Amino acid sequence: MFPSLTDTLPTDWSYLSEGGATIVFSYKGPSNPSFNGTVLRLRKRVLGSEDEDHHSEIDFTIDFQKEIIERLIPRAHLPRLVPVVVGEDAGTWLEALAAACEPHRPAERRRTDHIDVKSSNAVLATDLVGGQIIAVEIKPKWGFLPSPTFLSDATRSIKTRTCRFCMHSHLKAQQGDVVALGYCSLDLFSGDESRVKNALSSLWDAWMNSDGAMNNLKVFVHGKKIGPVEQSCILDLLDDATDPKEALISALLPILTATPVLRTLAHLQRTLDALDIEGLAALWDRAPVGPDPTMSEWTDFIATYLAAPSLPPADSAHLRHHALAYLLSATLKDCSVIVRVPDGTVAVIDLDAKHIDRLRKWARLDAEIVRAYAAVPERKVCVDALRV
């Protein structure tokens, strides 16, 4: 029997954070073995969109982590996910929670979406930011430069020289978006102390300059997300420290250079995205890519991949395999890593499966990113330290 949210009060849940698809609350109510030490992940709905029942999607999220992700990333580095039903009078309960959290949500989020108050179930996950600790959430993004093999003559010299994150940041800056321009994701993945330090410093500076709006770095202290104006509270948990930035980087650096998590993510991203979106697009021009994979198809794929990580030939007969590989790589490129200080633990979150209908959108975006960066006279050189 799954726990029911209506066994708690909406006021027992405190707004924590949100991403593009879900909104997260931490449990602050009276002691309850079903909810202690958990966060609640609820689906959001775009304003004005049709009502959707996310029941099967939530079940799929939990199964996807158990059957697929846990075969790639050790369970010790993953949150525990548990399904939870909303319970009787679910709409009223969710509406009360939605009304209470609205003042705490970023303005840009309030303009585009809200809690799906028609949801009948949700996900409970391990609370990785709660307690008397500092928790830093980093969205590392892409950890490799692509192989030149399947790139076009027009893009090869650009994509193999400058990483995807740096190129995309250039385009976003042109469009007026908040970006971490000084941050290179390959620095964070490098394992080199000076480069990882530079990555963390760049993320901190972007966090400061954007007043916390930049989404590649979030900082939580005592279970509460803080903004730059509150940075001094970091010092409460770090002995003999006087500068929040230097103290936090000094605490994070040995953890991030020692953990196997970043190296694992980069390896998986690279081996699953062997063709680049360009090579994959060349295949789907010759054959249909098909619908979203079923869980059975995912489990067959992961068994094949783990038995022989090198992908099959780049031909239309193997299009489906390459499409699933790219989708899984995309999940790993879009995840976040939570580092707890002083615990020293590292966990990976936001590992939901991607929908296959996004492939063509990604191909168009890739072309737009490279076109914009091709106009840069002095292009950045990014170093892929993990390239074999």
TrEMBL record:
GO CC entries: nucleus
Any one Gene Ontology molecular-function term assigned to this protein's record: inositol-1,3,4,5,6-pentakisphosphate 2-kinase activity
Superkingdom of origin organism: Eukaryota
InterPro entries the UniProt entry points to: Ins_P5_2-kin, IP5_2-K_N_lobe
GO biological process, one term: inositol phosphate biosynthetic process
Pfam families associated with the record: Ins_P5_2-kin
Keyword Protein biosynthesis: no
Keyword tags: ATP-binding, Kinase, Nucleotide-binding, Transferase
Record's catalysed reaction(s): 1D-myo-inositol 1,3,4,5,6-pentakisphosphate + ATP = 1D-myo-inositol hexakisphosphate + ADP + H(+)
EC number, as in UniProt: 2.7.1.158
Function of the protein: Phosphorylates Ins(1,3,4,5,6)P5 at position 2 to form Ins(1,2,3,4,5,6)P6 (InsP6 or phytate).
Swiss-Prot/TrEMBL domain comment: The EXKPK motif is conserved in inositol-pentakisphosphate 2-kinases of both family 1 and 2.
The protein, known as: Inositol-pentakisphosphate 2-kinase
Organism in which the protein naturally occurs: Mycena maculata
